[in-house]
Structure formats: structure tokens, C-alpha cells
Design brief:
With about 475 residues, the protein is α+β, with helices and mostly antiparallel strands. It folds into three domains: about 5-300 and about 400-440, 2,3-Dihydroxybiphenyl 1,2-Dioxygenase, domain 1 (Roll), CATH 3.10.180; about 305-350; about 360-395 and about 440-469, no CATH class. About 45% of the residues lie in helices and about 15% in strands. It has 18 helices and 14 strands. It has a five-stranded mixed β-sheet with strand order 3-4-5-2-8. A hairpin with a 5-residue loop joins strand 10 and strand 11 (about 285-290). The radius of gyration is 23 Å and the shape is globular. The structure holds 2-oxoadipic acid and nickel (II) ion. Nickel (II) ion binds near residues 66, 224 and 409.
Length: about 475
């Protein structure tokens, strides 16, 4: 029987989620149309190197999803479902710390880790997990009630988990199993029609609307699905022209003189969705909730640890400069971008060559064959090889997320301010702890990018007959 490979499961799962989410949230379909128009426009610009950060086939199909779970058990189970599709946990994000008014979750992203798999289909899911033990948000009493509520629900059926483990073991499924797996996996993320306990939801909402969205209901759902565009500034302008109310900034690096780095994202509030509520007297009433939204992103070159330090520093400095400017007059999105771009243009080299030379971003390297025939023995240091033109850098696209942007995305879409008591302390919930919950390696994104770079340099060393940069 033909085997459906893991990447095919992943691609089909992404397609089915997209189809389901489009029916649930019509604004998402509008976003896809506009994204497609933007990508077509970029591709037809003369001289544009539109496919430098991924083929247009990849970019067109590319999505990230965001989901939220409540317990370590649910996190471990969702890891099995994603592993079936060749998606593994990468990175640890602590959203509790990432912003002034924080969100009581820690997160990781499930994604392919191998460059060939990413090229086939890069579907990734930002997955957040509630931390009821964090006293800054939850009292001991609320923690106890929350945990017992969560312990009673089942997000993933045994049948789904058995099929998932089978797919991991055999690196695919026969077509009957594949169909069943995809049906069950997609259904697990469908918005439930079950009535929400109004009082319980409200109580959690007072702590955080994210806590209510996770722990106030008996199932989980896609929070958003995010397409990738090649020009996010153009997309932003087109959405506003269509009358869609976008958040007031694009998160992440500014539009500047150099190539796109890391990740730029923006979002809009989706409409309230009808949901049923169970009232204190047991009656069921129609109501609505507004927890889901639309998001779009542009992906750039992955930054090295050093590049990331510069990015983080520039972000702080931009914020400060914006605050200073805002003291005298309101700062528009355009003005904010101009402030940031000026700092970037001064402090970051604006070419791929420059970013590579200063080890600010990740590239793979190939030998420049034009140079070979009559050149003299190349030096061994990478900067010299780049500078003398022995090797050509090809950018490695950033496949991960940014904690500050993620917090900004969460916060800009909250329906209540929530509360947090910073005088309380909390037990260590960190990357090691998350790895224990997952029961499998939690990959370090820098190590993955570095591995790809190193592999290319090993090939360069062989070809140039040197010991290796
Ligand atoms: C996740 C928010 C983070 C991103 O793209 O940074 C995120 C959520 O709202 O559940 O999706
Ligand atoms: Ni997102």
C-alpha cells in the first residue's frame, strides 16, 4: 500500500486547517486574497529577487498556526501529534516576562528542523501552555480549581494518538490511516459549539483573557493561522484601504535600507464569534467571544546570537526614542518606522555581504567557481574567504518567532487587561522544565541554523582543499 510520508501529512494538515479556519473566520480568507495579490505584485517587480528567501511555491503554501493548551499532559500529547508530521519543538518563549502586562503562558514552536523538510513544507505551530502554578496570576485556590477542570477534559482521542505514534515510528502512514489521522487531527482544533460556563469563563478572564480562552472551555482551537507575504508594508496599506482595522504597528525590525531580517508581523482583531453560554441558573444563552484574530508575517534572514543582540538593543533604543518623541506629539506608524530605520541604517550593515562578514546573520556558503581557475591558495578564515570573493553567501531564512513580538501580538488582541501581582514569586518554569514536559529534545534554534551553516562550510573546505574555515 502506498505510504503517505510525514511531509505529505504535514502539508495536507496545514491545508485542511486553513480550509476549516477560513470557514470559521471569514476575514482570514480576505487576508489570504490580499497576501496573494501582494506576492504576485512583488514577483512581477523587475529585478526583484523575490525568491531569495524561499521558492514562491513554499511561500504561497506557508502558514504558521497558534494554539494554546492547558496542562503538561496536553503539551506532551500535542507533541506526539506534531511529531507524526515531522514537526519538533524548537525554542522556549516565556511570555510571562516578555511584556509589562503579561500573559500566563510559556511556549515553544513545533516545526520541521531539516532544511529539505522545510523546503517541502515549513508548517509550524506556535504552541502555548498555561502555567496555573504561577502565583503572580493564580491564587492557590484558583490553581486547584483550574487544574481539576483541565484534568477532566480530553483534547486528543486515543485513536488519534495511536495513529500519531504509528506515523512517527514508520515515518508515514498507509492511506487509510493517513486519512483517519488527518480527519481526527484537524477536528481536534475545530472551534467547539459546546456551551461555555459563563461564570467560570468570567472568573478566569479577570486574571487574563488568554487564561479564559484556554482554561474556560473544554476543548482547544486554532487561535490564528498566519500566511507569509513578501512585502508586509504593502499588505498593511492594502488591508487598511479595505477598511480592516489593523493594530497600529508592524512588530519586529523596521523597513530599512538592508534586507529583511528575522520576522516582521502585524495583526487585526477578528470579529466577535457567536458562542453559547451556560448561565448560573442552568439556562443556555447565545452570546459572543472575541478571541481569535488575523495575523500576517514577512520572514527575513536568521540572525546569529550576535545579530540578535544588536536587534534587541536597537529595539530598546527605538522604543525609547519613540517615547521621547511621543512626549511632544503623537507618533504615527510611519514616523515610528522612520525613527527605527534611521538607527538601523547607522548600526547594521545593509547588505548580505556585510551581515555575513560581521557574523550578524546566518548564511550557507558555496564556492565561487568564477574565482577558481587561476586564483591563489585561499585563506582559511571565513571573513577573508567572503571578502576575497572565494565563497558566496546564500541567506538562511528565519524559521522561528520573537518573544517580544509574540507578546505584542497576544496583548494587542486581549479583551481585558487582566491582573498580575509582581510581588509574588514563581517556581522555575524554564526550557529544561519544558523539555521534561515534552519528553523529547527541545531544539535550540541557534544550534539548528549553525548546523546548516557548518555543513555548507565543510563542503567549501573540501572543494577548496583547505582545512576548513
Ligand atoms: C500566540 C501569539 C504568538 C506569533 O506569531 O508570535 C504568535 C497566541 O496568540 O496564541 O502567534
Ligand atoms: Ni502568530
Amino acid at each position: 500500500m502506498p505510504i503517505t510520508q510525514q511531509w505529505e501529512l504535514r502539508a495536507e494538515f496545514a491545508r485542511r486547517l486553513s480550509h476549516m479556519y477560513g470557514k470559521e473566520v471569514p476575514a482570514y480568507t480576505t487576508l489570504l486574497e490580499v497576501s496573494q495579490a501582494v506576492n504576485d505584485a512583488v514577483l512581477s517587480r523587475p529585478g526583484a529577487d523575490a525568491e531569495r528567501l524561499g521558492s514562491i511555491a513554499r511561500v504561497t503554501a506557508e502558514r504558521h498556526g497558534a494554539i494554546r493548551v492547558g496542562t503538561p499532559q496536553e503539551m506532551a500529547q500535542v507533541a506526539r501529534v506534531f511529531a507524526a508530521m515531522g514537526m519538533y519543538p524548537v525554542g522556549f518563549y516565556d511570555l510571562r516576562e516578555a511584556a509589562a502586562s503579561s500573559v500566563p503562558v510559556v511556549s515553544t514552536a513545533f516545526r520541521p528542523t531539516d532544511p529539505d523538510e522545510l523546503a517541502r513544507n515549513p508548517f509550524r505551530v506556535f504552541t502555548s501552555m498555561l502555567v496555573p502554578s504561577d502565583r503572580r496570576f493564580f491564587s492557590a485556590d484558583l490553581q486547584r480549581r483550574l487544574e481539576s477542570f483541565l484534568a477532566r477534559r480530553t483534547l486528543f482521542t486515543t485513536e488519534l494518538l495511536v495513529l500519531a505514534d504509528r506515523a512517527s515510528e514508520y515515518r508515514g502512514l498507509n492511506s487509510g490511516d493517513a486519512e483517519m489521522f488527518l480527519t481526527l487531527a484537524t477536528a481536534a482544533f475545530k472551534l467547539s459549539t459546546e456551551a461555555v460556563d459563563r461564570a467560570w469563563y468570567r472568573e478566569l478572564e479577570q486574571v487574563s483573557s488568554v487564561a479564559a480562552d484556554i482554561g474556560g472551555v473544554t476543548s482547544t482551537h486554532v487561535n490564528h493561522l498566519t500566511p507569509r507575504v513578501l512585502d508586509i508594508d504593502d499588505l498593511y496599506a492594502r488591508m487598511e484601504r479595505r477598511g480592516i482595522d489593523m493594530i497600529d504597528t508592524i512588530q519586529g525590525p523596521p523597513r530599512w535600507a538592508g534586507p529583511d531580517l528575522l520576522l516582521r508581523q502585524t495583526s487585526f482583531r477578528a470579529l466577535a464569534e457567536p458562542r453559547m453560554f451556560r448561565e448560573a441558573d442552568g439556562s443556555v444563552e447565545a452570546g459572543s467571544l472575541r478571541v481569535r484574530f488575523g495575523e500576517v508575517e514577512a520572514r527575513g534572514i536568521a540572525a546569529t546570537v550576535r545579530g540578535r543582540e544588536v536587534y534587541d538593543r536597537l529595539t530598546v533604543e527605538t522604543e525609547q526614542a519613540v517615547r521621547e518623541a511621543a512626549a511632544t506629539a503623537p507618533v504615527s506608524a510611519e514616523a515610528r518606522n522612520a525613527i527605527a530605520a534611521e538607527q538601523w541604517n547607522q548600526r547594521m550593515p545593509a547588505t548580505e555581504q556585510g551581515l555575513a562578514l560581521h557574523d550578524l546573520a546566518y548564511f550557507t556558503y558555496t564556492v565561487n567557481t568564477d574565482k577558481l581557475p587561476n586564483g591563489h591558495a585561499p585563506s582559511r578564515s571565513l571573513p577573508d574567504l567572503i571578502d576575497e570573493g572565494w565563497v558566496r553567501p546564500e541567506p538562511i531564512v528565519y524559521e522561528d518567532f520573537l518573544p517580544k513580538s509574540a507578546a505584542g501580538i497576544f496583548l494587542s488582541n486581549l479583551t481585558s487587561d487582566g491582573r498580575k501581582d509582581d510581588t509574588q514569586s514563581t517556581a522555575a518554569v524554564d526550557a529544561d522544565w519544558m523539555e521534561g514536559v515534552l519528553g523529547r529534545p527541545l531544539h535550540d534554534p541557534y544550534a539548528l541554523y549553525d548546523g546548516v551553516r557548518r555543513a555548507s562550510l565543510a563542503r567549501v573546505a573540501t572543494e577548496l582543499h583547505i582545512r576548513g574555515p
